[in-house]
Design brief:
A hairpin with a 2-residue loop joins strand 1 and strand 2 (about 15-20). The longest helix is centred in the last third of the chain and has 17 residues, at about 135-150. The chain is α+β, with helices and mostly antiparallel strands. The termini are far apart. The protein has one domain (about 10-185): Multidrug-efflux Transporter 1 Regulator Bmrr, Chain A, CATH 3.20.80. The protein contains two helices and ten strands. The chain is about 20% helix and about 35% strand.
């Protein structure tokens, strides 16, 4: 069964890197603290609770991909899909992108006040695709590769990198689809 992903147009494709224009989306997000993997798990559980009926309508909302994780910066959070983390080490934002059929007006209200729904406007993102595991050192290396690729193309980064994971944890490590993403000015 196919899982919905955010819509984008690839403007430049260069090996594992792309420049993409993402359509506007609505995200459900939560701020969590801790080391990267523990924060991902905690954020995922909170958001899964919301989409599996932990809301005022007791309705399920379809799961999408990716789940993004970004370090929390206290400023605008770069869009990643579907769960995102951004910001300082130890303070994270985890996001699920809501299915396109929903609007802010029609999405059920989360029961947990830590879950926040918000619109994300169209964005221009530099993206590096990779498979395998997502340890903090590996994500840092991939983020540095993406920054170098963007610099070579005179793309001005305007955010912190996010990690987007597309596969469930039971997917064999060598088959996992991941991306690091960062917003660029354009």
């Amino acid at each position: 069964m196919a899982v919905e992903e955010p819509k984008y147009t690839a403007l430049v494709s260069d090996g594992a890197c792309e420049l993409r224009r993402y359509a506007p989306v609505i995200v459900a997000e939560v701020r969590v603290t801790g080391e990267m993997q523990a924060a991902t798990n905690a954020g995922f559980r909170l958001l899964a609770g919301y989409i599996f009926g932990g809301n005022n309508a007791r309705k399920s909302v379809a799961m999408t991909a990716p789940v993004t994780l970004a370090a929390s910066t206290g400023t605008k959070i770069a869009m990643t899909a579907p769960v995102t983390l951004a910001g300082r080490e130890g303070d994270w934002i985890v996001q699920f992108t809501m299915p396109r059929q929903w609007s802010l007006e029609t999405l059920p209200v989360p029961n947990d006040p830590r879950v926040r729904l918000r619109p994300v406007p169209e964005m221009l993102m530099a993206v590096l695709k990779f498979s395998g595991l997502t340890s903090p050192p590996r994500v840092a290396r991939k983020s540095a590769e993406l920054a170098a690729w963007a610099a070579e193309r005179d793309l001005e980064i305007s955010g912190t990198p996010s990690l987007a994971r597309y596969d469930p944890p039971w997917t064999p490590w060598f088959m996992r689809r991941n991306e690091v993403m960062v917003q660029v000015k354009g």
